Amino acid sequence: MSTKKRSNIDLDSLMIAKEKKFAIVHSEWNIEIVNRLLNGAFEFFSSIGLEKDKISICSVPGSFELIYGCKKMCYENKYDAIIAIGSVIRGETKHFDFICNSVFNGIKDLNLTSECPVIACILTDNNIEQSLERSGGNLGNKGYDCAAAAAKMTLI
Ligand code: DLZ
């Protein structure tokens, strides 16, 4: 499960972000996938010299609650960037569309209204096989990529 191959991430330029403060808010739904995304994020942070015990972690029940969790973290004014990690899998329910739209809109609103960048690391897949591919499978690890995006946003 290599997450090392990344197309356009310039690690050298992101090393300075190890001085910044990061928080991760993750959901408990589809926890197997979420843990893989978390590991990808920790792998990125470790590669710039920031170990996982320096990162604040908050868990919420489902992806819908990521909005509130991130809002709370934003308004603590303690972090330079926050990453929302979740996995929504289509299944048989209309919840998929409601949850996906709400979460991305909620996170978009936070980016417009608070000073803290919030990165959306939420997989939205038709089935678990697709989620596995994007969380450390053949399509890389979105957790790693989103942690790199968070680091980049602290330097803007
Ligand atoms: C209800 C629900 C469903 C059907 N599917 C998912 C999912 O695939 N991924 C996820 O993170 N959460 C799911 N949830 C839970 C909602 O996000 C939320 O926790 C509940 O609707 C309670 O607000």
3D architecture notes:
The protein has 156 residues and is α/β, with parallel strands linked by helices. The chain has a single domain, classed as Rossmann fold (3-Layer(aba) Sandwich). Helices cover 43% and strands 21% of the residues. It contains six helices and six strands. It has a four-stranded parallel sheet, sandwiched between helices. Strands 5-6 form a two-stranded antiparallel ribbon. A hairpin with a 2-residue loop joins strand 5 and strand 6. Helix 2 packs across helix 6 and helix 3 runs parallel beside helix 4. The radius of gyration is 15 Å and the shape is globular. The N terminus is likely disordered. The chain binds ligand DLZ.
How would you briefly describe this protein structure?
This protein is an alpha/beta fold and 156 residues long.
Low-confidence stretches: 1-5
Helix content: 40-55%
Largest sheet: 4 strands, parallel
Mean pLDDT: 94
Radius of gyration: 15 Å
- The gross shape turns out to be globular
Small-molecule binders: ligand DLZ
State the name of the first-level CATH class. Alpha Beta
What is the H/E order?
A: HEHEHEHEHEEH
What's the total count of β strands? 6
Secondary structural class: alpha/beta
Brief descriptors of the model:
156 residues; alpha/beta; Rossmann fold; four-stranded parallel β-sheet; two-stranded antiparallel ribbon; 6 helices; 6 strands; 43% helix; disordered N terminus
